[in-house]
Structure formats: structure tokens, C-alpha cells
Amino acid sequence: MTAVENSLRRLRTDHLDLYQIHRPDPTVDVEETLSALSDLIHSGKVRAIGTSTFPASEIVEAQWVAERRGLDRFHTEQPPYSIVNRSIEREVLPIAQRYGMGTLVWSPLGQGLLTGRHRKGAQTDTHRSGYTPQYFSDERKLEAVEQLIPLAEKAGLPMTHPGVTSAIIGPRTMEQLDDLLAGADVTLDDEILDRIDEIAPPGTDAGPNQAAYTPPAVSTVSLRRRPVAERSAA
Question: Which chain regions cross the lipid bilayer (predicted)?
Fold first, then answer.
């Protein structure tokens, strides 16, 4: 509640058109979260609610809880999606389509990898490389980029998917904005899409460092390993 009030004050408005939860909070029950968000909607401070980088299982649970408890449900999901990060095609996009959720994908250019700026054997001089250097040095991703560049030069357009409602872009110049907007009215032909599927198979990630959200059950050692004493006894 406090976060929304602060956002309204900073934005100098009386309501938010869309308020999204950024990644699941394992310490808070989803029913409690939906209850608070429903109160915000009923008070007129928020028009619609959504999720960001939620696993498919968490989305399904939230929709089930909303229906069973008579709470407002999530209407959008904001996942990472690009040619080098296609894992959401397996579950997240189909689930979003099933529940009629809008999908606002982020990092459609793979954090800059798909711009052609970062090449195999070249020195990376971006501020992001200091934050996630492994992302720009993964050989599998860089090899995929090398194969995709000829296709990009031929088409000059992004990949599309029927489950994607819109893409979040982050241009730093008007030239970059114009280039991004140019792809909005054109569709890639099957020949190019088939070649993309060969380079980066549907539902896969081009490298091991693509996970935008790692659940505590995976990232927390104590949640995926029994105590040493129990392991020794076994």
C-alpha cells in the first residue's frame, strides 16, 4: 500500500493504469498479495494488476486463488523474451494465452546482444558487462548471434509470437527509437522464422545465464539439500 501511495505522489496522479508485482515473494502468500491489490483496485488507485517474471506455476496458482477467493486477478505478465531467450514459449506464453493475460516482454534485444554490438572475440565496452559480464561472454549466445546477424541484415526486423502483446523497449537515442518502431508494421516470412528456429530452437535459451528468476527452492542450498547429519545417517 505504501509503495503505491509513494508512486502516486512521485507521478503526481491519483491512479495507476497498471501495477505489476516484480517477481514472486516466497515469504508472502499469494492470497495476501491479491487481497491487498484488490483493495487498491476497489479504492480506484489502481486500474489493473499484473506480474513480472513469474514462473508459469506461480501464475496458475494466483489465477486459481483469485477465482476461489473472489479476488481481482492478474491481467498481465512481463517476462524476458528474445531470440536468445525463448524459454517462456514452453509454459509462460501458453498459460498467459489460456488466461487471457496480456504479455509485455522485456529485453527483446537480449540486453543488447541482438544489436550486433557484441561479437565473438571483440572487447565488450558496455556498462552492463560490469554488472553481468558472464552474459556477454557466453560462447553459445555469441555463436547464435553470429548466425543471426545475416538474417537481421536481410530482414532488419524482430521475431514475433502470437502470445506477445507488446514489447518493452529502451532506446537511448531517437535513431534507436526509429529503428525499433520500424518493425511494428512488418511480419517476418516463414523462411526467416524457420532459420531462426534452427539457430535458436523454440522454447530454449541460447546460454545457461538466461534465467531471469530463480526460485528459492533452486537458489537456496538449505531448501534443496538435507542437513549433513541426515545425509550421513542415510
Answer: none
